[in-house]
Amino acid sequence: MGEQFRRLVDEELSAQQPPRLDGLVARAVGDGRRIRRGRALGVGSVAAAVVLVVTGGALLLAQPPPPHQSPSGVVTAGTDELPATPEALLELLTSLLPQGTVSGHAGRVDRDWIAARVYLNQNIVQISVARRLSPSPPFCVSAPPRSDPTLGSTPRPDSSELPPELAAPGICDLRADGSYIQRFEEPDNCAERTGFDVHRPDGVSVRIVTGGCPTPGGPEEVPGEVGLPASTAVAIVSDSRWAPTMPADLVTAGAIHFPDLPDIPGATPG
Amino acid sequence: MRGESDFVAYAEARVARLRQRAYLLCHDWHLAQDLTQITLARLYASWRRITKVENIDAYAAKVMVRAFLDHKRRKSSGEIVTDSVPEQVDASTPDLRLTLLEALRQLAPRERAIVVLRYWEDHSVDAVAEMLDTTPGVVKTQSMRALSRLRTLLGTDMAALVD
User: Fold this and answer.
1) Which domain holds residue B32?
2) Can you name the residues that pair with B161 across neighbouring β-strands?
3) pTM recorded for the entire structure
């Protein structure tokens, strides 16, 4: 029954190139332990902690978010924060970008993520903030020791100043604050071809896109030295203010500076 | 603990297949990785009880499909924007013909789950109904609807593929 169907599906699956499975079982065991501990404490499932609710175009957590810590160790006050908006993301993003011509401002909010996009010198820069489905960083491959002489021997032109782990897509670099940073490349994803992901221990993932296809109605992308340098992209995506709730002053300023923000062109309607 | 080593042995043996199923459901390898991790984490958390279940694989399928459908309910969009999937094709033109995976992708999530469970994994109608918490009648109806849609998309006699 269905032999031919199975064979055809298996043939097409075998032609795919999935990411490596490294460490997935170990991460699942870690998550499973956390679920057990949660049950023992009567907290409920891990999944319940990451459910998001959309209200009025803003991203809200089902539970109050824990205060997050900046790299300097300063805890931001929850009372001075508001649900993040695309306008607030743009406010922060444009304040962090290097000097250049910025155009094509756009934003999008969805149930599980929120995003803002601009073009810097006609090269895409998009930031998005999401809650992970699972508490562990997904699809992270452990970084080899930095002393590995084979790493960094063929650095990408724009990443020579980065740790060697970040010169290769798919490898995660564990940082002192417990977050992971990972370079990604998704050739089949027109909107988000390349950039960096930060997976934070508070369950928030932040993505900066520094390469994508030109979008209908958007500027033509011009790859080259005028785009965002990799080190700057890493610095931007590592900013601790990217979160489902953001400082109230950013949210307010964003609403003033970016009224009537258009939707990100090419995104799937929510 | 012996239970943990049993779980790890089970998980290592099944993880690739689990992720393939997840991919057939969501058509995104990263989300597939996440769904697989969630499924295994939930199995681990209840492993002692699950080992008393007759068919652990069927239980894992149920966990994954429900996680997938819950995710789709919470997240009405989130499909990766891609420039690689044609919207409408002329099935009579071989070069433009959809692949089976691309055609599956165009089914509604629940219908896709039914097709994957029924015809790729060969679960019975009753088993699929139990996994989806519905009736066998609904599974049969949605199976027929999904196959009809695939036939339209692929220009293929789906009955010949699944009989």
Assistant:
1) 1-79
2) none
3) 0.49
